[in-house]
Predict the 3D structure of the following.
Amino acid sequence: MAKAIEEYEKSRDNLDSAGSSGGNTGNAGGTVNVQGWLVNANRIPYTEFKMTMTTEYRLATDIQKMEQELWTLTLKGNDIKAYSNRFYELVLMCYELVSTKKKKIEKYICGFPERIKENITSSKPATLHDAINMACELVEQAVQDKAARIGESNKRK
């Protein structure tokens, strides 16, 4: 997952610097073909792609709901994969809220419990990929620590 995010970041940076490379190549049939959608998304600049997606597939109220969800998104249990996937989906649709790498990293970190948040912040990740890797390690460590504590308490009984 982190590798996919890193590849997306690279391709988006390339598209942003290349300028407009054509018009909307979206699906005119009204249905969304995910593979075609992703291929077409990589052919046009991100700003043009987002405008197309918001005008064709999302109402303003839906976008507001997604923006609110992005601001309130938190890690549920130890399912970091689901948290990271949802964060990434919301960032794609609410790009203006986290338009810089620094803002994206800060917002990603905000959804974690305080102990994990402090550890990620102190490591000063340079990229979202670094933050995701650190978060995965810390969540896995927390799960192992909890399992060890439960095992110890069961031995005492």
